[in-house]
């Protein structure tokens, strides 16, 4: 007698990423732009395929004789009525961060054009930046799956992209004076790392308010206490969402570093751990669906060694920081899942599984809590 192979796990339906009407945004954006560039017209408004579930991104062109056609992108704070992923969207903070990085580093960031603090024109604050041509490693389906440009690249080309991306982190951390980034200090008492973790605890409390709590997330917070670094090091400007899916590449070189809404003052290893873990997350997804993925890409040992060569700083306590990255991502995943529940796209599993199974990487996070970082 033969048995049928177990089919690969099927993902939950893709959650909606925006509740806004691009045509309505285009009309209101044209009205707003007329005060800055009289006679300008907005055309080609679209939502990129990579649009996340946090701030909305809209792509558009400006048609105006002086200056010539501009290709732009707009970052619009999330609609507060759309069950947002984060409790606060500080567009001015993102705008200031991008200007700071452009002023002090050779890290490529899009040129920011305008900041609008008033929510009246589009329903929320926003900023406009120039759009940079290039390609982005996809999240859906992930770049670790067959059939996309990064997967089909050669090992040499991926190694080039990896080295250049680690170089972005090295230059960001080394070149921005911490004093100039003081506005990114998180509130609270104690060191930058203590404040960073405290902010994540507050975020988790917000996510589960009135909803089932996650025993796995809470055990991961407890594990952080056991692994806490003895020497946290001096804080730097931390990108916060340091992953290749937030970089536009020209060939295999970074052309624009995007998504600065999680930037803060923090130890260097916060970004390094996030880069390592987010690739591991996508690699685990590929393996879980029966694909080989990219197991030799963005490996922890290579990232640490490359960063040390570029900066003279040897990353330390990386078990702590990779666990922290997995924990932070778990809280985001839980919020995204509860957002799907809110919109009737998913349900909370009954006990004994409970809300922990809404976290796509719950097996990996559980293993880390038990001390397995392999």
Automatic annotation (TrEMBL):
Q: Which residues cross the membrane?
A: none
InterPro entries found in the cross-reference section: ACAD10_11_N (IPR041726), AGP_Transferase (IPR051678), Aminoglycoside_PTrfase (IPR002575), Kinase-like_dom_sf (IPR011009)
Q: Which domain of life is it from?
A: Bacteria
Q: Where is the composition biased (Pro residues)?
A: 1-14
In terms of Pfam families, this protein maps to: APH
Region annotation Disordered: residue ranges?
1-24
Picking any one GO molecular function of the record gives: transferase activity
Which residue range or ranges hold the Aminoglycoside phosphotransferase domain?
Answer: 90-279
Q: Which UniProt keywords apply?
A: Transferase
This chain belongs to which protein, by name? Phosphotransferase
